[in-house]
Design brief:
Layout (H helix, E strand, L loop, with lengths): L28 H5 L6 H30 L3 E4 L4 H12 L8 E6 L8 H12 L4 E3 L9 H8 L3 H4 L1 H19 L4 E3 L16 E4 L5 E4 L7 H11 L38 E4 L2 E4 L2 H4 L45 E2 L2 H10 L2 E6 L4 H5 L1 H10 L4 E5 L4 H7 L7 E5 L5 E4 L6 H10 L2
Helix pairs in contact: 3-8, 12-14
Organism: Triparma strigata
Pfam families: PAPS_reduct (PF01507), Thioredoxin (PF00085)
Protein name: Thioredoxin domain-containing protein
Length: 431
């Protein structure tokens, strides 16, 4: 990491004129009497302009630190309102054309029809070429190949596996491919309780450390649209169709909406057309409403309502530059020797992906299992050889634990209990 310009001077507004009166000072009666001359709308507009100017300055300072002090600043861009603001800010600073900031896009093959054409339009507008990543083993833009390899209904059959295949793994691979040391993203405190405490900079505890820059951490959604209006920033066409945010078209609805999938349908309308709101903007701008129309009808495996796409859940950035079980008694198994080794002697094999939060969650217990068993315990990375592990190691999702018995049979451990005692009992019962 470089330290160029870290303490660059930034002009700060002077606040002396706004110093509070002493405790014994009475309010000015002349000021109160002149309230009839007070123009409320002008005051609000001026106050919002002052706020936006400060937020711009603050965000640009954070982006300056990210792009001048790190070698590979990467911005995973979903083209939502906050993301187009960041894109515009990066362009104003010159970091898109000079390549100091790279734009990364994850194509899930389920995005709105307008999303990728919109990306092409802003590439031309700002003079950059996005780095696009999609499901492993599928050519960029080839939905037919995706459906053939993973199934068109994967998201209906297993939403967590869909998140891993279409979002988390390509996201991880993108960060790794681009040698990311600082990740810029558009998360804000205003987006909901899961993000209410984020600051402009965070660190992910991985490898040498991944800096995370949240330049809009303290912005509201209204601030983002105020900025878009002020600078006439190109923005996603879905905002004119009633969507405050967008992700996959399959589970995103306009807000407000009478869509039966919406748990709280409301009448009314709100759109952002020609750089101004039409309808009642409170439906979009109240706290946490930006993402209210996202993940509609989806639930996590534990039954809880889905609120995150998978990329930003705990663990999503944790292991993009390291493997699991890098030391200890767990032995690495390659596809080339997996069948020969496991057929020659009994053993235990976990098929895993290092980016999978469930694999990460069992890392410690599986390592302990390897210490306690007298037979070999292996790890076999499966996300890069899906066809092979599906055909030979009972793998439909990660992690999949198999016991290879003395007859060479590969027996799958079906339980979700991944503690040492439970796994050890299963191994012993199948030997």
């Amino acid at each position: 990491m470089k330290l160029i310009g870290l303490f660059a001077a930034v002009a700060l507004p002077t606040c002396v004129a706004f110093a509070p009166p002493t405790a014994f000072t009475k309010p000015s009666t002349s000021l109160l009497k002149s309230s009839t001359q007070f123009d409320q709308e002008t005051f609000i507009a001026e106050s919002k302009e002052m706020r936006l100017n400060h937020l711009e300055e603050q965000a640009m300072y954070a982006l300056n630190i990210s792009c001048e002090n790190y070698d590979n600043a990467v911005f995973p861009n979903a083209m939502i309102a906050g993301d187009v603001v960041i894109t515009h800010l990066l362009s104003r600073l010159g970091y898109l054309k000079d390549g100091k900031a790279k734009i990364m896009v994850v194509d899930t093959f389920h995005l709105f029809d307008d999303t990728m054409p919109f990306l092409r339009s802003i590439e031309k507008e700002y003079g950059f070429d996005a780095e696009i990543f999609c499901a492993e083993g599928v050519p960029v833009g080839d939905k037919v190949a995706f459906d053939k390899k993973y199934g068109a209904d994967l998201w209906k059959e297993d939403i967590e596996q869909y998140d891993k295949v279409c979002k988390v793994e390509p996201f991880q691979r993108g960060l790794k491919t681009l040698n990311t040391d600082c990740m810029i993203n558009g998360r804000t405190r205003w987006q909901g309780f899961e993000r209410a405490w984020i600051d402009q900079f965070e660190n992910a505890p991985i490898g040498g450390g991944l800096a995370k820059c949240n330049p809009l951490a303290y912005w509201t959604l209204e601030d983002c649209f105020d900025y878009i209006s002020k600078y006439k920033v190109p923005h996603h066409p879905c905002h004119a169709q009633g969507y405050p945010s967008h992700g996959d078209a399959k589970d995103t609805i306009p807000i407000p909406s009478m869509d039966p999938r919406n748990p709280d349908p409301q009448e009314g309308s709100c759109k952002f057309v020609d750089f101004k709101f039409e309808g009642d903007k409170k439906f979009w701008l109240d706290y946490a409403c930006e993402r209210k129309g996202r993940f509609v009808g989806l639930a996590n495996k534990d039954g809880s309502t889905k609120t995150e796409c998978g990329i930003h859940v705990e663990g999503a950035e944790k292991t993009f530059d390291r493997d699991l079980w890098e030391s200890g008694s767990v032995k690495e198994l390659s596809v080339g020797d997996a069948l020969e080794v496991t057929k020659s002697a009994p053993g235990v094999v976990v098929v895993y992906a290092p980016w999978c939060q469930f694999c990460q969650g069992m890392e410690s217990e599986y390592a302990k299992l390897a210490e306690e068993l007298s037979l070999p315990v292996y790890k076999l990375r499966g996300d890069e050889e899906r066809d092979f592990v599906q055909a030979n190691f009972n793998t439909q999702s990660f992690p999949t634990i198999n016991v290879v018995n003395k007859n060479g049979d590969v027996v799958k451990y079906e339980s979700e209990q991944r503690d040492v005692a439970s796994m050890k009992s299963f191994v012993e019962s199948n030997m």
